[in-house]
Specification:
single chain, 309 residues, alpha/beta, eleven-stranded mixed β-sheet, four-stranded mixed β-sheet, 15 strands, 37% helix, 25% strand, globular
């Protein structure tokens, strides 16, 4: 079983409009609602790939009930979310069908009490003995300590469970020091962590800070990985137009899937890159187009990288 942690779950709402016009009324042609948050998105992709997945984190209020109802309808995903008194947040993606651009609106998360945080830590510890890998994903809601991910990384390591960390800012900085097996920042998060905007140098620096491997998302330029086994760049065959929401989460799912299947790093990166690109092409944010994914698997280019000076 792969365990995904989403401390700031959400109900993801996607509005599609023919052409988004600021400062005017816009008629919505289609509305889609689905359980969201980075770890939930990762779990959905993993389940679609045939893996057993358990989702934990926080959920509460009327929105939280909708999240759990929708999550129960996702085949292969087990709900182990911890209830809280606050209301789960919503995110709204507005897709402009004319340009393909997406405007994202994210509500703040609910405030988590010390007792609720303690209850989650106990639930998380109870789930780890059955986990083959764990993904710690997304932002921290108010009330959760900024060093929360560092503690969750150390707990997973005490059970010898490989852990992937995908967050940003100070939670990432502290989490890296706890020595997660993999971190998966995007270019901006990597630059914020290291102070460098040169991807290979920044990725190597991030690994020196404690991560076993660093896989950086570089948008249309694919993935850059620095690991104990080597350094690689994975590039999709073409830049695909569409909605990039959830592409990074799909890449995380690809990395975890490759880890669970004991694939070598180049094959893990191929899977992650193809999944990310297939997510951009999907009509609903955070889903992936299986046909595009299967076609791209044989067309992603993975090459070894020379060390930065």
């Amino acid at each position: 079983m792969i365990l995904t942690v989403t401390l700031n779950t959400a109900l993801d709402i996607t509005y599609r409009v023919r052409s988004l016009r600021p400062h005017a009324s816009n008629r919505v042609s289609e509305v889609t609602e689905r359980p969201g948050g980075k770890g939930v998105n990762v779990a959905r992709v993993l389940a679609a790939l045939g893996h057993e997945v358990t989702v934990t984190g926080f959920t509460g209020g009327a929105t939280g009930r909708v999240v759990r109802e929708r999550l129960a309808a996702v085949p292969g995903v087990v709900d182990a979310l911890v209830p809280i008194s606050g209301a789960t947040r919503r995110t709204v993606a507005v897709v402009d069908e004319r340009t393909g651009d997406t405007t994202q609106l994210n509500e703040p998360g609910p405030t988590v009490t010390p007792a609720e945080w303690s209850a989650f830590q106990h639930a998380y510890t109870d789930l780890l003995p059955s986990a083959s890998a764990v993904a710690l994903c997304g932002s921290l809601p108010p009330g959760v300590p900024v060093g929360a991910y560092a503690g969750l990384v150390r707990t997973a390591r005490s059970f010898s469970v490989p852990v992937l960390l995908d967050t940003s800012g100070e939670p990432l900085r502290r989490g890296v020091a706890a020595r997660p097996d993999i971190i998966k920042p995007n270019a901006d998060e990597l630059a914020e962590l290291t102070g460098s905007h040169e991807p290979l140098r920044a990725t190597q620096d991030a690994r020196r800070r404690g991560a076993g491997a660093v896989v950086a998302s570089l948008g249309p330029e694919g993935l850059l990985a620095v690991t104990r086994e080597g350094r690689w760049r994975a590039i999709p065959p073409t830049s695909l137009r569409g909605n990039p929401t959830g592409a990074g989460d799909a890449a995380v799912a690809g990395l975890l899937s490759g880890l669970a299947d004991h694939l070598p790093w180049p094959d893990r990166l191929t899977r992650a890159t193809a999944l990310a690109a297939a997510t951009v092409r999907a009509p609903v944010a955070g889903e992936f187009d299986r046909g595009v994914y299967e076609e791209l698997l044989g067309r992603v280019t993975v090459s070894a990288e020379v060390s930065a000076a």
